[in-house]
């Protein structure tokens, strides 16, 4: 079973907390998976229509030690023995409740897994020698991974983050869903209106973007995709 001991510098703690905050807008559970190539934080919404994942490479931490051992303490390399766990989002959000000022209050944070007690431990080393310890209960689970192949997609759009952020700002805050329309010579975003008896009572918003505004524009097939705007706004807040 895997064990983890890592240290997050105080200056990097806000970035780590912002990732958890973003995932909390998607799902009620945080999937925690320490691997050799980094620590993965993931979440999915209840309908499994939105998924978020952050990978923190070992270089993000001031030290990152992961070991996989059997019950006798011998090293193992089997990925099936890596501990994959999940915990309630509310419990871990309590650790980062002072996110705006956390980098000024905390000098470093040590994270470890207590497999025997089924606890994920955060130790905040604050100023004046104060240490705050949070022991969060977790349960083991299967890995959470969105299964798809980008190479098989006929449509591929790549743009700078600001283009998407500015486009989303055109929609009302209470807008729940939008439709993405892809054509060979343009992309459009418009608000989705479902079964409105009087269309004149609804504000209609539509934004059109030309292929020249994208770094990569590949429109292999015409597509109209309607999706929830809430999770897209979560991504916008992270990249801004």
UniProtKB/TrEMBL annotation:
Sample GO molecular function, one term: exonuclease activity
Statement: the UniProt record of this protein carries the keyword Phosphoprotein: yes
Give the matching SUPFAM superfamilies: DNA clamp (SSF55979)
Chief location of this protein within or outside the cell: nucleus
Q: Which domain of life is it from?
A: Eukaryota
Q: Where in the cell is it found?
A: Nucleus
Pfam families assigned to the protein according to its UniProt record, in alphabetical order: Rad9 (PF04139)
Instruction: List, alphabetically, the GO terms of the cellular component aspect.
Output: checkpoint clamp complex
Q: Per UniProt, which keywords does this protein have?
A: DNA damage, Exonuclease, Hydrolase, Nuclease, Nucleus, Phosphoprotein
Q: Which family does it belong to?
A: Belongs to the rad9 family.
**Function according to Swiss-Prot or TrEMBL:** Component of the 9-1-1 cell-cycle checkpoint response complex that plays a major role in DNA repair. The 9-1-1 complex is recruited to DNA lesion upon damage by the RAD17-replication factor C (RFC) clamp loader complex. Acts then as a sliding clamp platform on DNA for several proteins involved in long-patch base excision repair (LP-BER).
Q: Which PANTHER family match?
A: CELL CYCLE CHECKPOINT CONTROL PROTEIN, DNA REPAIR PROTEIN RAD9
What's the name of the protein? Cell cycle checkpoint control protein RAD9A
Q: Whose protein is this, by species?
A: Arion vulgaris
Encoding gene (name)? ORF68820
């Amino acid at each position: 079973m895997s064990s983890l001991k890592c240290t997050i510098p105080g200056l990097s703690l806000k970035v780590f907390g912002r990732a958890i905050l973003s995932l909390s807008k998607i799902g009620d559970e945080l999937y925690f998976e320490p691997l050799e190539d980094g620590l993965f934080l993931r979440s999915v919404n209840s309908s499994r229509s939105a998924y978020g994942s952050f990978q923190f490479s070992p270089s993000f931490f001031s030290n990152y030690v992961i070991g996989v051992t059997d019950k006798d303490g011998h090293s193992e390399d089997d990925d099936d023995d890596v501990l994959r766990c999940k915990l309630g989002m509310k419990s871990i959000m309590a650790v980062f409740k002072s996110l705006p000022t956390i980098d000024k209050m905390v000098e470093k944070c040590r994270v470890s897994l207590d497999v025997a007690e089924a606890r994920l431990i955060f130790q905040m080393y604050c100023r004046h020698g104060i240490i705050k310890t949070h022991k969060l209960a977790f349960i083991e689970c299967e890995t959470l991974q969105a299964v798809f192949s980008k190479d098989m997609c006929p449509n591929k759009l790549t743009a700078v983050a600001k283009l998407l952020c500015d486009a989303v700002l055109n929609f009302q805050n209470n807008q729940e869903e939008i439709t993405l329309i892809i054509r060979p010579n343009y992309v459009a975003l418009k608000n989705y209106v479902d079964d409105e008896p009087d269309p004149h009572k609804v504000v209609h918003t539509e934004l059109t973007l030309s292929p020249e505004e994208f770094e990569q524009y590949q429109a292999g097939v015409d597509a109209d995709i309607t999706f929830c705007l809430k999770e897209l706004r979560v991504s916008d807040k992270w990249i801004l």
